[in-house]
Design brief:
Blueprint: E1 2-6, H1 10-21, E2 28-32, H2 35-44, E3 49-53, H3 61-71, E4 76-80, H4 85-93, E5 98-101, H5 102-117, E6 122-123, H6 125-139, H7 145-150, H8 154-164, H9 169-176, H10 180-194, H11 199-208
Parallel strand pairs: 1-2, 1-3, 3-4, 4-5, 5-6
Helix pairs in contact: 2-3, 4-6, 6-11, 8-10, 8-11, 9-10
Length: 213
């Protein structure tokens, strides 16, 4: 596994890079101090996964995340001290596949990396709670989403559960034993039934209702 760590705090960068290099299966750890440098490294090095600080000079963490996910499709794991629900939701919508609070990151990063490398996601307990609150405040405002969930078929609920876990169409297809085209069809129907415009909003509805149970 070849990793890129984008972090401007030199002390934290050193501590995390040292820890990552000691993990089983990690072959290489490149480091960058800002988003621009990180994007340059991605253009020249065979990276499997990016660990990205949210608050960076220059381009900034969210903009860097959007460019990485849009241009490379690589999984991005956010490292930050932010826990506000607004920030967590922005991290989600920027395309990140995981979130770790810096105070807990060294203890949890190995499991998080393993999760992202198999196509899943990693949101720690506080981030998940923030997404649930965000879903309640925004995606569910003034509507009866539980009734809409009741209208889903068993297969549609399975697909929605996978979406809420951060799975892409390929992984959903593999898990459910169906084709990617079928997954896309289910997602299209889901968005219509839930009256939302994208996968993130659908996932937030699940997190704010079924995800609490």
């Amino acid at each position: 596994m070849k990793l890129l760590l984008i972090e401007d705090d030199q002390a934290y960068q050193l501590a995390m890079a040292t820890h990552l290099r000691q993990l089983t299966g990690v072959q290489e750890v490149w480091v960058a101090e800002d988003g621009e440098m990180g994007l340059e490294l991605l253009a020249s090095q065979p990276v499997d996964l990016v660990l990205l600080d949210l608050v960076l000079p220059g381009l900034g963490g969210l903009a860097t995340c959007r460019q990485i996910t849009a241009n490379t499709g690589l999984p991005v794991l956010i490292l930050t001290s932010q826990e506000d629900s607004g920030w967590v939701r922005q991290i989600w919508t920027a395309g990140a596949r995981g979130y770790l609070h810096k105070e807990r990151a060294l203890a949890q990063v190995e499991l998080a990396l393993a999760s992202l490398m198999v196509g899943a996601s990693w949101w720690d307990q506080k981030a998940r709670a923030a997404l649930q609150r965000s879903g309640s405040d925004q995606a569910l405002a003034g509507s009866h989403q539980s009734e809409r969930l009741d209208g889903l078929t068993h297969r549609e609920r399975e697909v929605l559960t996978c979406l809420a876990a951060g799975d892409n169409n390929r992984l959903i297809a593999e898990q459910l034993g169906i084709g990617e085209g079928t997954v896309r069809s289910h997602v299209h129907v889901l968005l219509q039934k839930l009256q939302v415009s994208n996968r993130t909003q659908a996932a937030l509805i699940w997190l704010a209702t079924e995800g609490r149970q």
